[in-house]
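Reader question, answered in our methods column.
A reader sent in the components of a multi-part assembly and asked whether the whole thing could be modeled at once rather than chain by chain. We filled in our standard form and ran it. Here is what they sent:
COMPLEX SIZE: two components
ENTRIES:
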Amino acid sequence: MGLVVQKYGGSSVADAEGIKRVAKRIVDAKKNGNQVVVVVSAMGDTTDELIDLAGQVSPIPAGREFDMLLTAGERISMALLAMAIKNLGHEAQSFTGSQAGVITDSVHNKARIIDVTPGRIRTALDEGNIAIVAGFQGVSQDKKDITTLGRGGSDTTAVALAAALDAEVCEIYTDVDGVFTADPRVVKKARKIDWISFEDMLELAASGSKVLLHRCVEYARRYNIPIHVRSSFSGLRGTWVSNEPQGDQKVEHAIISGVAHDVSEAKITVVGVPDKPGEAAAIFRTIANAEINIDMVVQNVSAASTGLTDISFTLPKAEGRKAIDALERNRGTIGFESLRYDDQIAKISLVGAGMKTNPGVTAGFFEALSDAGVNIELISTSEIRISVVTRADDVIEAVRAVHTAFGLDSDSDEAVVYGGTGR
Amino acid sequence: MGLVVQKYGGSSVADAEGIKRVAKRIVDAKKNGNQVVVVVSAMGDTTDELIDLAGQVSPIPAGREFDMLLTAGERISMALLAMAIKNLGHEAQSFTGSQAGVITDSVHNKARIIDVTPGRIRTALDEGNIAIVAGFQGVSQDKKDITTLGRGGSDTTAVALAAALDAEVCEIYTDVDGVFTADPRVVKKARKIDWISFEDMLELAASGSKVLLHRCVEYARRYNIPIHVRSSFSGLRGTWVSNEPQGDQKVEHAIISGVAHDVSEAKITVVGVPDKPGEAAAIFRTIANAEINIDMVVQNVSAASTGLTDISFTLPKAEGRKAIDALERNRGTIGFESLRYDDQIAKISLVGAGMKTNPGVTAGFFEALSDAGVNIELISTSEIRISVVTRADDVIEAVRAVHTAFGLDSDSDEAVVYGGTGR
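And here is the structure of the entire assembly that came back:
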């Protein structure tokens, strides 16, 4: 008998009908002879509504209390789901993150899982129950306070439980049919990927693909837990993410896995930096001290006549104001002429392990963009990814051109189920 | 420095404005030099909405999961309240029932508190925090499952914490100004009671007064915790409930505390019961086995010619169907001719320790009803209470007549704040 962990996002359990539909799917997995552990997010917009309420009583909600507030959402959905399953004649028990043994550090609102001790889950399974676990939440090791795992936290809960319980697979149910070669809202001919490696999925997630978050894939890779991303609506086979394809998992696209894009970043250019050792370090130490994560970095060739150079980097738009402030405060120490801020940029990335041994990929990528009349502002490459920054206005055209150029377009205009994604 | 436990019902924290208003009141108590523990109910209609959701996914929600669901409501209100207090510049920490050490038995949906171990609350107070505790919930001693305390459970949480922390007073904030000599919606001239004994309050609660529930008063009496029932809107002094009046607590109504009425009961008459030993026992054993609590019981004088008698009793309307079914199933064993069910009755009760030594009270009560043209169907008395059952249609006239006859009417038509009550 296999052990399966299933995770359902907020859009899959948005109302009573959704909960009953999901309950049927869970019972089917149980009837197929599996032990079933289910991780569930808060219903639909519950979390946003709670965040809104918090904003009404306090402009800067405190971390500990904010986590206590938000975790109410999963308590509601998991209890209702357990009831719906019992109503179908099967035994189910719901568990908070704390009851499920999800132990985290004490960083409220974005805690990291440091251990999973699923003793109560194991007991519930051994007694023939389906175990329903609140996603997105845990309990801090030192203070025993309720914590939340931040965006995409329920996926991480599911993978972490799958690892701790040595599950055969972690099924991530969402409102799309799987991982696509590009965002199907942008590229109508995007193809669903049948199988993708952890490495390629990590690069896609880092490049703007929203279906799985980076942290969740990283966790799955570390513990070698196959992930199956699929739709809770269609019931079709989705995308398998694992080390190696298994059985009849098709590997059609040996060279390129997909095209990702990201319009959530901004670009800061530090103009007129003295071209001497230690300058770049001073800039990025300043940014790091402000706890801002940066993405791409490019230093222009120095103009010999002035001895000055420009350094550009990209970062989340939400961090833009903080970064500019930090740099201005340290202007004297760093030494630069001016700062330029640009939030009208897009990043387009081509991802695929095959490009390591295919030298023509980079050239083909740039040619496709050039043919589409898209200007490139920054370039960054890894062994299995090429990313460029373009004007935000060019993003749709750029993604479509690259998708077609690398033969990723589907033959048919197949219907694609797509909405937002749960957390 | 004194320790005060305050409890706020759902109507007091129905929205963000309510939460901010309550936060100010709590901070005022802290500024007055008290250590403050606050017990809070779920916001407004949250609990009813959750119950409705449960009904949509399952016709018979399971106890354990139902409790998990309902307790989400208090997590939301307590976290928001803690945030609102912090926003006023004071330290606050919220605690679930489990974190607050509210240990219960395992009877889901109506658990009883068996111990309170408020170690974390004590620590929070010693560190200068205001402690916010989720009302209505606890954790079961044996299984460590989340439990709820049933209707009025938040009041019981507050009194139990006050006892465990040896508080000076347990303040129950609600949307009325205190306990009145009669329901102010029925009797416009009802007077707010300044002080009332535990015993009289217990009788009023048992007779239909909704301001404080019987279980909460019983707990307070056992541990001798004074209760102060007051409005979270007006801030006026309310009603003190305690063993003895203290300081300037006025004791105006030495004989009679008030008139209560209750239209939530029904009457069952078992017709044609053989008048021999063991018959009544057989009837009430049947009812007890069905876990139904009954209230008043009356056996008519046997008609000598037939050797048969009738036995009538009252019980909550909600239990009527179950009681009839249980009696019908045991008809052969018990032996009776027929059953009569009547849910158009009202119970009117006069409560006051003074009546023990005032023999005229009973007569005065019946005269007042008679003068108002109200017919009496059943009578039941204790040392400090007389109750009668009348037609439901007569209840308003009966309550007003008795209130006036015993001199309880207020001199002025004072404005009275009244709405529903939280749980």
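What stands out: Residues 254-407 of chain B form a domain with the VC0802-like fold (CATH 3.30.2130.10). Residues 414-423 of chain B have pLDDT under 50 and may be disordered.
Send us your own complexes using the same form.
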